[in-house]
Amino acid sequence: MNTFSREKPASKRSVDEITGGRRLRRMRKADWSRRLVRENHLTVDDLIWPIFVMEGENRREPIEAMPGAFRLSVDQAVKEAERAARLGIPALATFPHIETGRRDRTGSHILDPENVTNRATRAIKDAVPEIGVITDAALDPFTDHGHDGILRDGVIVNDESVAQVTAAAVLQAAAGADIIAPSDMMDGRIGAIRSALDENGFQDVAIMSYATKFASAFYGPYRDAIGTKGVLKGDKNTYYIDHANTDEAMREAEQDLAEGADMLMVKPGLPYLDIIHRVKETFQVPTFAYQVSGEYAMIRAAAANGWIDGERVMFESLTAFKRAGCDGILTYFAPEVAEKLKAG
Ligand code: PBG
Question: How many domains, the chain?
């Protein structure tokens, strides 16, 4: 039989006895008090906008699995850079879509000073010098097998891949890139790129290392965006970090700092907040997260179905990065967020 009655409290102790009078809801009672005690803020200064560049003119190709994102010809990329600058977004990160005919075993087109990455950098810096340009130093858009390294007898050969990416990084700097972002996880690439940049007079070009890049299924839509989806043979498990590992990620971050990285990145983002937190706490250096294509696609898809409030989830997910310790976030939501922040 139920011995509780409405008249008698279920517990003899009052709430004030239980809490000792500490009532955390007091500061949550109104919008003004919540704003007053808010610990983390997302601002436009936190945003890096990844964009996809391609050959041609006046082209904007929608990316199916990334609603709201486009592959852009260089002239259109310049337009978007102008828009980003107007919105106050500090930097863009470019990723190239390379035509199939230009891809080969070693990704040699990355060494063409006139490839679409370098032309986009020059055009953007020419038109909008005040915006930061970050270039992706990795072979995968340029290889006919979709790997980030040179493939020989089924093996990704580290040192040759480093040499190729290092030469490409110098060309990217010469085109005007402000930050080189090596995303391939080859051993020794940060130190090699730092030395080569310095030897070629690019002391002021920074390196944002994809220091902790995990072997992840969240990159799916990106491979569609750069056209390597059906191309990639096998997986990237011999060079990206096993997604079950934390200590290994810390060793990668430590190593990249020792080799000369100016900024560290954790990728993917939201499923790896523990890594972000530990990296920031341990090294206290500029730390960034990449909210990758799959994370973006999931939010967009659920929102399109009416299953979540897309705008609120967008802001909540980005604020989570700040709470975890990020100094900034690479996100495909950047222009939308910047517009909403501006509107207030
Ligand atoms: C590879 C690279 C990847 C992304 C950017 N550069 C991962 C991959 O294709 O394996 C992913 C970005 C995203 O998913 O948004 N160098």
Answer: 1
